[in-house]
Amino acid sequence: MALALWPRKLHFLTTSSFFRYPLTRWVLQNVQAIPKIQFRTDIQATKQMFSAIRAGGAVAILPEGQCSLDGSCSTIDNSIAKMVKKTGCPVAAVRTRGAYLVWPRWSQSGIRLGRIEATAQLLLDSDEVAILSIAEIQTIIEKALTFNDYGWQHRRRKSYLSFAPAAGVHNLCHQCPACGQILAMTSTRHRLTCRFCGNEATMDRFGFFSTDLRNLSRDHRPKIKPDPYRWHQWQLQEISKKMNETEFILEFPAEAELLGPDGNFTSIGRCLIKMTATGISFTGDPYPEENRPALQISLPYDRKAGISFDFGQQFEIALGDLTYRFRPDNGQAVILVVDAILASADSRVT
Fold first, then answer.
1. Which end of the chain is more exposed for a tag (fewer CB within 10 A), N or C?
2. Which DSSP letter does residue 216 get?
3. What is the pLDDT of residue 250?
4. Domain 249-349: assigned CATH number
5. The pTM is what?
6. How many other β-carbons are positioned within 10 Å of the β-carbon of residue 325?
7. Which residues contact residue 16 at a Cβ distance below 8 angstroms, ignoring those fewer than 6 apart?
8. Alpha-carbon distance 145 to 124, whole Å?
9. CA–CA separation, 226 vs 207, rounded Å?
10. 104, 151 in Cβ contact below 8 A?
C-alpha cells in the first residue's frame, strides 16, 4: 500500500494494542502510525488523522479493522464513509488477493510460500466525494473491497506451500459435518479429524479439503466442506439455528483478566462463560479474602460490543471503558463465542 501511494507520506491507522509491545511500538512510532483504541470513539486518533490529511499526507485504514476470519470480507463500518465525506479528500483503494492463503489466521505453521496480488485504484476524487451521500460512498467502498480468497483460489488453483498446511485449522473448523458434534475436530500436519466419529479431511497444497474415497462404501464416505471458508459459513448457520432454540446452553470455564491503565492485563480469577439463546454471561468466582465483588457480566446478543481474539487461545471484549480478556480452558471454544456474536450481526469482531 505504501509503495502504491509513494511519494505521499502514508500514516497507518493501527490498533493501540500493538503499542503495548516494545518492538512493534518502536516500529510503528518510526513510521508515524496513528494508534486507535478499538471499539470506542477515539478523539485523539481522529485529530491525528485530520492533521495528517491537512499536512498533505494520506491515512491508510483497513476498513474491516481486522485480519480476515475465514478468508472472506467482514462488515465494513460506515464510520470510514463518514470521515471521507467530512474531509472531502480523494479515496484510493488497495485490494489484495491471496494474503489469507499465504498466512491463514488460524495457522500454527507460519507463512506459506505463495503469491499475493495487489491492485490500487483511485476510487473517488474530491469532486465525486462532494456530490455523493455517505450511503453512496459506503456502497462504493464495500463493492471495491469485497473479497473471498478461497473463491478466487478455486478459479486459479495455485500452490501455497507449507510443511503443515492443516495445523491449527481445527480452531476455526471445530464442528463435524458428519455427526454434528461441536468442538469435535482435531488437526495434524495435513488432516482434520473428528474425535467422535472419525470423519476426516485432508488439506492439499491449494488450501482445499479433500478425502480419499478409495475402498470406502457410499455409506462410510466422509462428509466434509471444500475449504475453511465454506466450513465456517456452515458453522455460522448451525450456531444461528441453535441460538433460536430456547433450551440452547453452552458453558466453558475460563481465566479472566482486566486491562489496566498501564496497558497490561491482570488476572481477576476464574469465571464461567455461559452462552444461551439470548446472550453470553461471565460469572466469576467469589473473592472471600478480597474486598471486591465477583465478576458478573451479562451481554445480550443485541447489545453492540467489540470483540478481538486469537484462535485457540483467548478473546477480549470491550464494554464501555473496560476491556476484559478471557482464556477458555478449551481454547477451541473461542470460535464458538466469536460465531455467536457474529450471528447476532450487531457486534464488531477483530
1. N
2. -
3. 94
4. 2.30.29.30
5. 0.87
6. 22
7. 35, 36, 37, 38, 42
8. 13
9. 9
10. no
CB 39 within 8 A of CB 348: yes
Q: How far is CA 199 from CA 168, 217, 234, 281, in A?
A: 17, 14, 16, 33
Where are the extended beta strands (E) located within the chain? 10-15, 34-36, 58-60, 91-97, 117-124, 185-187, 191-194, 200-203, 209-210, 249-259, 265-276, 279-284, 296-300, 306-310, 314-319, 322-328, 348-349
Res 52: pLDDT: 84
Question: Could you tell me the residue ranges of all domains in the chain?
Answer: 10-156, 169-241, 249-349
- How far apart are the C-alpha atoms of 350 and 16, rounded to whole Å? 13
82-100 pLDDT, tens per residue?
989 999 999 999 889 999 9
**Could you tell me the mean pLDDT of each successive run of 10 residues in the chain, 350 residues long?**
65 76 77 74 80 84 79 86 91 92 96 93 94 96 93 96 98 97 97 95 96 58 91 95 89 93 87 93 76 82 77 90 92 94 64
pLDDT tens for residues 295-330?
899 988 877 667 889 999 999 988 878 889 999 999
Question: What's the CA gap between 197 and 185, in Å, rounded?
Answer: 10
Grid coordinates representing 100 are 489469507
Contact between 67 and 309 under an 8 Å Cβ cutoff? The reply is: no
